[in-house]
Amino acid sequence: SNPIASTIPATFFSSINVGTFSFTMSDANITGTIPANLFWPFNYAISALAIDLSSNQLTGSVPINFLSSSSPVTTIGLFTLLIRHNQLSGALVASTFTKLNCPNQFVFDASFNSLSGALPSGFLQTMQTNILSVSLNSNQLSGSIPTDMYPLVTTLQSYTWNLDNNLLSGLLFNSGTGMTIFGNITVRGRFSFSANNNALSG
Questions:
Q1: Per-residue confidence at 75, pLDDT binned at 50, 70, 90?
Q2: Rounded CA separation 162/192 (Å)
Q3: Max alpha carbon distance in the chain (Å)?
Q4: Could you tell me how far CA 8 lies from the centroid of its own chain?
Q5: Which residue, 141, 149, 140, 135, is CA-closest to 192?
Q6: 39 vs 155 pLDDT, higher one
Q7: What distance in Å separates the CA atoms of residue 180 and residue 159, rounded to the nearest whole number?
Q8: Which residues pair with 115 in a beta bridge?
Q9: Which of 37, 73, 76, 155 has its CA 20 to 30 A from that of 197?
């Protein structure tokens, strides 16, 4: 642990100028909010980016966009963002990762917070990746799971979602339309979907 007690400056990651960047400040008593446009301006030479801000005291919502809304789609081969075990609240929005393309791996873990509201329609649908892992377990997410949350890519090596311990309801499969939350994706390797301790059916 790194008990330094501080906040995250708005431009903290904008001057990164390396091919691979890993930043770990878990259990460091970091307070305040996660700045909007956290990775903007962005160095397009970065091929792998891993940020671990787990087990702090971050508050507020997950930013509506980690890059500028006016930026082009940015490619990072390997992307990991861990913000689990904080005090984040509010609803997720579909635009958070729309400017990000992670062809090799995308990992997002916001579990054990107080995120609420419905999962947004189209969340991560534009993500082009081979390995996708999303952990949103142990929050207060409610409503049904949208049928367009799956990525538009049709084949992945690994696909993992954890939505355990929320307030989700509704159907996993709509017999009337034949739609499922998994779309038409094909997973060549690991497939894991967990939504225990909700009110889902079907």
A1: confident
A2: 8
A3: 55
A4: 19
A5: 135
A6: 155
A7: 15
A8: 90
A9: 155
Alpha-carbon span 99 to 77, nearest angstrom: 14
Residue among 88, 89, 86 at smallest CA distance from 55? 86
Beta pairing partners, 179: 174
- Enter the tokens of residue 154: 């049709």
Query: Can you read off the two tokens belonging to residue 95?
Result: 């635009």
Cα separations (Å) of 155 from 25, 78, 146, 158, 193? 34, 17, 20, 9, 16
Instruction: Show Cβ contacts of residue 144 under 8 Å, excluding neighbours closer than 6 positions.
Output: 118, 168, 169, 170, 171
d(CA 79, CA 119): 21
pTM here is 0.90
Find out whether 168 and 141 touch, Cβ atoms under 8 Å: yes
DSSP secondary structure letter of residue 109 = E
